[in-house]
Amino acid sequence: MGIFDKAKDAMSGQQDKVDAGVEQAGDMVDERTDSKYAEQVDQGQDMAKDKLGGLTGDQPEQPA
What are the tens digits of pLDDT across the range 13-43? Predict the structure, then answer.
């Protein structure tokens, strides 16, 4: 079992916790940069959630 398999197993069914961590990290960046890069941080958060959603085994939310 490789490291990615172990990570996938560890995060299985934890999408809400993964999303919360990504949000918290983005909020910290916004705070430290006085939201100067808020748009780019938001884009990065969305990309991270999409990529990490595949590891959790949960289906990503479909855009409306």
Answer: 788 888 899 999 999 999 999 999 999 999 9
Measured CA to CA, the distance from residue 53 to residue 43 in angstroms comes to 15
Spacing of C-alpha 16 from chain mean position: 9
Pull the structure tokens for residue 53: 């959603």
Q: Where are the domains of the chain?
A: 3-54
Taking each continuous run of H as one helix and of E as one strand, the counts in the chain are: 3, 0
d(CA 9, CA 16): 15
CA–CA dist 2, 34 (Å, integer): 40
Q: What is the pTM of this model?
A: 0.67
Provide the token pair at 9.
């197993």
